[in-house]
Amino acid sequence: MASIFGNVEVGPKIEVFALTKSFTEDTSSCKVNLSVGAYRTPDGRPWVLPVVKKTEIQVAECENINHEYLPVTGLESFTKASVSLLLGEDSPAIKENRAVGVQALSGTGALRIGAEFLFSKLGRRVVYYSNPTWENHHKVFAGAGFTDIRQYKYWNAQTRGIDMDGLLDDLKNAPEGAVIILHACAHNPTGCDPTKEQWTQIADVMESKKLFPFFDSAYQGFASGDPVRDAFAVRYFVSRGFELFCAQSYAKNFGLYCERVGNLTVVQKNSSTTAAVLSQLTLIVRAMYSNPPAFGARIVESILNSPVLRKEWYECIKIMSSRILKMRKALYEELTRLGTPGGWNHITDQIGMFSYTGLNEKQCQLLIDEFHIYLLKTGRISMSGLNENNVVHVAKAIHTAVTTIQN
Question: Is 134 a catalytic residue?
Fold first, then answer.
């Protein structure tokens, strides 16, 4: 008998994982991985934050901890700490019980839970994400049932910055009630964030059009080294009276990539809807994966709820963000020294883990084939993959690619 799986087609490779596999198999001594969105130390190694390492041991050795199921909505001390980190301890939304959290499988899981709720419980059918955006945004919302998935303009290739006029125009033309995915900080992949004045313009349009903000906060604290600064956009929208969702991830800012620690923060107009919203989110989680894992959440809540450990965490995220800023400066200075054609100020103007270099697909392929430098075909690079030992090599390769291959 023929297999029922016989007609299943091989799916396309996930680019970032395929590049990492190629990098691992590459035997070159000068290879560089600029594709993966994970922090690396100056010697190119993964970094376990010292405060996380210490807290892991404390959690593991705690006699009061067992392996019983968590509540479906997660560890309450974790979700409360997450909402507080995002909105601020003095947030009226928290004090009035209008803001609640649901533990999720990192930021991706939080996006999916929120998408499922918007589609199945609120009947939302239209979602917009920025062009470009993190490639998983489309998959998450399509998987939740959204079929009307659109883009709003974001990247201006000529200025290598935000296309603000195009962005606002697209939002003005969006249908009432559409879901708008917004990057809270450190926009992935461009590294270009709106200014406070631009966030005001975005909020004005979204308010007038009754659009629903769904923030994706994957880098709070990691972007600037200051969690308060990185939470500005979300807090501003809340202060304006928006109801919104925000997907929080602790992969980057705590280095807990494989632990899948995340939270979905829900902000409402008043507390009367809280019980109903939580009950429906509970049912969504129950049907999807029953309940979340505990270990990573216990690490995060232990750190956020301890003034001493929280201070140590602040020091860690400052180290990570400062090193990335240093690498931005180093790459910019080296390209400038080489006289590489084109402007490169955008590398230092951008923020967060990624830089949208402006390199085209052929130039990127040259970097891979000739220089063993692995990056996405869009020209996005992870700044944490740079260090003092490889930045000159990378700059020379970019210089060669730009001078050899024109648009």
Answer: yes
Please tell me the class of the 15-47+322-404 domain.
Answer: alpha beta
> Choosing from 31, 170, 193, 252, which is the catalytic residue?
252
Beta bridge partners of 100: 266
Tens digit of pLDDT for each residue in 71-105?
Answer: 999 999 999 999 999 999 999 999 999 999 999 99
252 is catalytic: yes
- Rounded to the nearest angstrom, the gap between the alpha carbon of residue 355 and the centroid of all alpha carbons in its chain is 14
CATH architecture designation of domain 69-305: 3-Layer(aba) Sandwich (3.40)
Residue ranges in the chain whose pLDDT is less than 50: none
- Which of 346, 339, 395, 397 minimizes the C-alpha distance to 370? 397
Question: Sign of dihedral through CA atoms 36, 39, 43, 47?
Answer: negative
Is 216 annotated as catalytic? yes
- Domain ranges in the chain are 15-47+322-404, 69-305
pLDDT tens for each residue of 351-406 = 999 999 989 999 999 999 999 999 999 999 999 999 999 999 999 999 999 999 87
Q: Which of the following is catalytic: 216, 230, 313, 344?
A: 216
